[in-house]
From TrEMBL:
PANTHER family: HTH MERR-TYPE DOMAIN-CONTAINING PROTEIN (PTHR30204:SF93), REDOX-CYCLING DRUG-SENSING TRANSCRIPTIONAL ACTIVATOR SOXR (PTHR30204)
Lineage of the organism: Bacteria, Bacillati, Actinomycetota, Actinomycetes, Streptosporangiales
Superkingdom of this protein's organism: Bacteria
Matches recorded under Pfam families: MerR (PF00376), MerR_1 (PF13411)
Domain HTH merR-type: start-end pairs: 1-48, 152-221
Entry protein name: DNA-binding transcriptional regulator, MerR family
InterPro entries on file: DNA-bd_dom_put_sf, MerR-type_HTH_dom, MerR_fam
A molecular function GO annotation: DNA binding
Keywords of this entry: DNA-binding
Keyword DNA-binding: yes
SUPFAM superfamilies (alphabetical): Putative DNA-binding domain
Amino acid sequence: MGRRSLRPVDLARIAGVSTQQIRNYADTGVLPPAPRTASGYRVFGEHHREALLAYRGLAQGYGWNVARSVMQAVHAGDVAEALALIDAAHAELHRQRLSLSAAAEALRTVAAQSDAAGDGPGADSGALPGGRRGTGSADAPGAEPGTAMRGGLRIGEVAALLGVRASALRVWESAGLLIPSREPGTGYRRYGPADVRDARMVLILRQSRYPLPQIRPILDELRRSGGSDALGEALDRRRQALTRRSRAMLEGAALLHRYLGERDASGGAAVAEDQGTA
């Protein structure tokens, strides 16, 4: 890795940080030990530069905490632990990809079943698949059309609308999938248009044999994004973000691999040489 001496300011310029931050890296084990001159000044070498580049590269993909732990493990002589941390980060990224794929597949399932039932994005929230209306969703006699839906449907009305038992809606609510409001005074559940949409999605996913724990994150993302189209766009953005992170992890791992290779090749000689000349 060479014998050229580097000052803290040289490393600071490479990383775009302060000289104090370089000292902090050395003190916390992010950088390998640095010998000191008789007057107490640290003397850095090319191996410190390579370690710094590896750390900064790892941080871009794995995050600062993981990058710090990896470099500390390397400099503590526990390369196996460092690689285990790398593996764990890749496993977590893979888990996120699987979750993203499941959400995208669920969205396609809902869209396909809604299209087959003639239940497009602008469909009547009170319509059953095929255009029929649930008997419980009809407006009360003498009431202005649409007031029942605007005020919210009761649990029995939603159950009739979807063709399920009211107990199923309660189970979905207890699982955190539905969050209907409550009438003041009576405490009766009231399902607004968004609640009916959520219940319809739960029904479709349950019919497609999705377990309840897998449905909740899909609904949470749907609520955050504001609709199925927005959810699809959010999933695309998330997929692109994961791809960028995967590339960054690959680049960081390459820098770590180079640092480990040069470190192994030197056998600690660079550090010994610095200590002998300090």
